[in-house]
Amino acid sequence: MTVRALPGGAWETLFPLALTLIDEISRYGGVAVQFWPWAAQRC
User: Fold this and answer.
1) Rounded to an integer, what distance in angstroms lies between the CA atom of residue 43 and that of residue 24?
2) Angle, CA of 31, 15 and 25, to the nearest 5°
3) Which terminus in the chain has less CB density within 10 A, N or C?
4) Residues 23, 25: Cα–Cα separation, whole Å
């Protein structure tokens, strides 16, 4: 298996922010209404 580097882009800025958001959500008790399972059922 070979490892390929991801191309640069907006994800390099957004990914650390997304991880911070996930950490803060878990630290402060989560989300009362989890919208992602609902969205997955609608597909």
Assistant:
1) 28
2) 15
3) N
4) 6
- Token pair, residue 16, equals 């650390």
pLDDT of residue 1: 65
pLDDT averaged per 10 residues, the chain (length 43): 84 92 84 63 55
Tokens of 38: 């609902």
The answer to whether 31 touches 25, Cβ cutoff 8 Å, is yes
- Give CA–CA dist 43/41, Å, rounded: 6
* pTM score, whole prediction: 0.55
CB atoms within 10 A of CB 11: 11
**Rounded CA separation 39/29 (Å):** 21
